[in-house]
Amino acid sequence: MSNRWPARLWIVRHGESAGNVARDRADAAGLGRIDIAMRDVEVPLSHAGRDQALALGAWLADQPEDRRPQVLLASPYLRARHTAELIAEAGGVVADTFAPCIDERLREREFGVLDRLTRAGILEHFPEEAERRTFLGKFYHRPPGGESWADVILRLRSMLDTLSLHHEGQRVLIVCHQVVVLCLRYLLENLDETAILAIDAEKDVSNCGVTEYEIDPDSRRSMRLVRYNFVAPLREAGAPVTSAPDANVAAR
């Protein structure tokens, strides 16, 4: 009987980026706008982010071949693509090529007019949007020109359909972004708004933190969470563990 799903699925947030660092600086200085002179899609990894990606790749490379990813998918954003490439170059993927398959549906949530603003900046420049977000909640709030969490989930539904169509029974590694990791949990575990926001409130998703699923041994028709936000590979390699939001996600 067909099970529709990959045999095993790893969902990984990209390594620390220059956006993480810029956001921390802006928050520490009490600034309203995050100073980074590039489009979000072009924000690169920091040095720490490279170390994190290589550490995770080395950890995967140490696993038995039948426990390593065969398929590598990534967001088109530079920090995610580079993370995926470094994981593969470190031997973490059983594949003929280091190049990940890029899927635009895995991209970062779009923030529209709130892009690059800190919480202080949003309150200063768009107080009505801050009020509207408080009323609607961040799951459904869509800033002008941007996306809500529900919008991200809509595009990810079709991505999961593609995953089940082309990668059934395979071992798949996805490299994406913090909100995308959480929205995939929402879909794979049939959660509701309250449940996924409670998970989000507990802690940020760590850079190169691993969320892992396997075929549910009872149903064989769904996936079961094995672990979430797993960062032992980074600690074992002496790589820093970081979890700050990116430059454009002060109000995620």
In percent terms, what proportion of residues is strand? 5-15%
Query: Count of helices?
Result: 9
Structural class: alpha/beta
- The CATH superfamily is identified as Phosphoglycerate mutase-like
Roughly what percent helix? 40-55%
**Unreliable residue stretches:** none
Write down the domain tally: 1
Strand order of the largest sheet: 3-2-4-1-5-6
Main pleated-sheet profile = 6 strands, mixed
CATH architectural group: 3-Layer(aba) Sandwich
How would you explain this protein's 3D organization?
It is a single chain. Helix 2 packs parallel to helix 3. The chain has 252 residues and is α/β, with parallel strands linked by helices. The protein has nine helices and six strands, in the order E-H-H-E-H-E-H-H-H-E-H-H-E-E-H. The model has no long low-confidence stretch (mean pLDDT 92). The chain has a six-stranded mixed sheet with strand order 3-2-4-1-5-6. It has one domain: Rossmann fold (3-Layer(aba) Sandwich), CATH 3.40.50.1240. Helix content is 40%, strand content 13%.
